[in-house]
Design brief:
It contains five helices and eleven strands, in the order H-E-E-H-H-E-E-E-E-E-E-E-E-E-H-H. By secondary structure, it is α+β, with helices and mostly antiparallel strands. The protein folds into two domains: about 150 residues, no CATH class; about 50 residues, no CATH class. The strands form two sheets. Strands 1, 2, 5, 6, 8, 9 and 10 form a seven-stranded mixed β-sheet that branches. A four-stranded antiparallel β-sheet has the order 4-3-7-11. Helix 1 packs antiparallel against helix 5. The longest helix has 23 residues.
Length: about 240
């Protein structure tokens, strides 16, 4: 018995197995400031963030949303409203309590309109208000109760502030000065490959593979591929024995 088409298929599975999971979602926090004190705050959340394992959860697509009952859509918005309170805190200097009243809508990424059936759906909360008198600085905190990274983007007077940040739970963003619309602190030096190698060497870290994630230095996934190849080898041996019996 021959299996001419089986082995190419199994080989293909070995290489696509690392690609089955989606990239982890993050929470995007975007602020827009105008000279007259107008302030718009937007928070974008991927509904996968609500799942126990967002890395393997499927996207909610525009086609899925079209057949989602209105009651379930409202539940998703309510979940987003509760979720954001556990993930991010808005801070104004002098320190003042800020409780954004976000209005939630279903959009594509970066607040773009949903168009194609396969477009991933995001929940975007928007709050338009005036900065309180005397406000001098704006920043956010990625709360320790969150589990995903928070993206910090700002636009001032119609131009994007060049510096943005990726915050992990427990981290604070830089403070944006609300008079100059520039960061109050300098950005840290960029992380380069040479810097990572030097840090690994100083810490005695292995060079060939990340012990936790199973990745090689070039970003490849070693463990899933090795496991898949081992499975193919075992199957080939079993088939050969089957043919000789």
């Amino acid at each position: 018995m021959k299996f001419p088409a089986l082995f190419p298929l199994l080989a293909l599975m070995a290489f696509v197995s690392p690609c089955l999971a989606h990239p982890l979602p993050d929470v995007a926090v975007r602020a827009q400031f105008e000279q007259n004190g107008d302030w718009m705050l937007q928070v974008e959340i991927d509904p996968r963030s609500f799942q126990p394992d967002p890395n393997v959860a499927p996207y909610l697509t525009n086609a899925d949303l079209a057949v989602t009952p209105a009651e379930q859509q409202e539940k998703l918005k309510a979940t987003a409203r509760e979720y954001v309170q556990k993930v991010v805190e808005v801070v104004l200097d002098p320190v003042a309590e800020v409780k954004p009243d976000l209005v939630w809508e279903f959009t594509a990424a970066e607040n773009a309109p949903l168009k194609l059936p396969e477009d991933p759906v995001m929940l975007t909360g928007t709050w338009r208000t005036k900065l309180p008198a005397g406000s001098t600085g704006y920043s956010i905190k990625a709360l320790p109760t969150g589990t995903l990274s928070v993206l910090y983007h700002n636009t001032a007077l119609g131009k994007k502030v060049e510096r943005y940040q990726i915050l992990f739970p427990g981290e604070n963003s830089y403070v944006l000065d609300l008079k100059t619309f520039t960061p109050r602190t300098k950005a840290p030096p960029p992380i380069t490959a040479d810097a990572i190698e030097a840090a690994n060497a100083a810490a005695g870290a292995p060079d060939l593979m990340c012990a936790l994630c199973g990745t090689t230095p070039d970003g490849g996934y070693m463990l899933p591929t090795v496991a898949a190849v081992a499975g193919i080898v075992g199957l080939v041996i079993w088939l050969r024995k089957k043919r000789t019996t």
